[in-house]
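User: Could you go from structure to sequence for me? I need the amino acid at each position, not a summary. C-alpha cells:
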C-alpha cells in the first residue's frame, strides 16, 4: 500500500510550524458537534484515523464518546496524550497496516484522505468498512477538484507573524492537489503534501467497490480570495472539500 515518502516529514514539520495554534479551541468543540449532527443518530464508539493533534477526539470525548485514534507521527500522538481525556486511546501507527480487531459505531477521516493512488484509497475504504459496525457510519473528507484547480499557484502566510508561507498547486494529469509549506527565511527547505482529488461520482465508484454506499454528500467551506476570509459553508461546486457519509452496503 501507499509508501509516500513525503507523508511523515510533512506532518511532522506542519506540527512544528503551527505549534502556537495547536491548543483545543471553540472551533474544535464546534467540529465535534458537527460530527454529531452529520452522523444523525446515537453512537458510543469512534475510530478516528489520521487524527493529528487529537483535538477532535478530545471534543468528542467531552460528550462521553469512547474514542480510539490512529496517527502516524509520534510527536502528534504524544501531544494528543498530554492533552487527552480518559475516554481517548491514542495509537501511533499507519492506518494501512495497524491491527484493530474491534468495530466502531463511527469511523472518521477528517481532512487528509487521498494519499497515494486509487488502489490505496480503495484499500483504505475497505478497511473502513471492516471497522464499521453493521449499522455504523463513516465520515470522510474528500478534496474537490474544481476548487483546487482554481487555487493552483495561490500563496499565503499561515501565522500572524508571517513567518510561515504556504502555496497551493494542482497536478492536472493525476488530479492531485499539492500543498507546500516553508519558513520565509529558508524557502529552499520546503515540505509538500500531495493528495488525490475526486469528483462525487468518482468517490462513489470507489466506495461501491469497497462495499460502502454514500448516503449523503456534505459540502464544506471555501476561501474567499477577494475578501481574504474563510467561508464555512460553500456550494458543492465551490467548496475546497466535501464530506461523504458512508455505510456498509452489504
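Assistant: Here is the amino acid at each position, in order:
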Amino acid at each position: 500500500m501507499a509508501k509516500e515518502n513525503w507523508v511523515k516529514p510533512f506532518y511532522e514539520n506542519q506540527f512544528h510550524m503551527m505549534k502556537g495554534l495547536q491548543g483545543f479551541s471553540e472551533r474544535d468543540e464546534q467540529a465535534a458537534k458537527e460530527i454529531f449532527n452529520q452522523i444523525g443518530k446515537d453512537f458510543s464508539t469512534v475510530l478516528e484515523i489520521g487524527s493529528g493533534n487529537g483535538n477532535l477526539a478530545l471534543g468528542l470525548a467531552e460528550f462521553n464518546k469512547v474514542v480510539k485514534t490512529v496517527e502516524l507521527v509520534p510527536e502528534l500522538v504524544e501531544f494528543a496524550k498530554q492533552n487527552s481525556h480518559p475516554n481517548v486511546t491514542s495509537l501511533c501507527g499507519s492506518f494501512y497496516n495497524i491491527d484493530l480487531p474491534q468495530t466502531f459505531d463511527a469511523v472518521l477521516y477528517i481532512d487528509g484522505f487521498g494519499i497515494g493512488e486509487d488502489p490505496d484509497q480503495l484499500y483504505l475504504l475497505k478497511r473502513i468498512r471492516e471497522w464499521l459496525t453493521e449499522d455504523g457510519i463513516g465520515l470522510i473528507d474528500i478534496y474537490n477538484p474544481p476548487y483546487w484547480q482554481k487555487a493552483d499557484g495561490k500563496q499565503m502566510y499561515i501565522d500572524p507573524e508571517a513567518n510561515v508561507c504556504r502555496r497551493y498547486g494542482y497536478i492536472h494529469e493525476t488530479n492531485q492537489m499539492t500543498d507546500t509549506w516553508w519558513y520565509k527565511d529558508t524557502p529552499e527547505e520546503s515540505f509538500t503534501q500531495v493528495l488525490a482529488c475526486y469528483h462525487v461520482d468518482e468517490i462513489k465508484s470507489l466506495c461501491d467497490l469497497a462495499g460502502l454506499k454514500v448516503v449523503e454528500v456534505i459540502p464544506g467551506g471555501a476561501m474567499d480570495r477577494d475578501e481574504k476570509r474563510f467561508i464555512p459553508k460553500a456550494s458543492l461546486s465551490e467548496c475546497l472539500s466535501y464530506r461523504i457519509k458512508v455505510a456498509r452496503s452489504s
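One structural detail worth keeping in mind: The CA atoms of residues 162 and 184 lie 8 Å apart.
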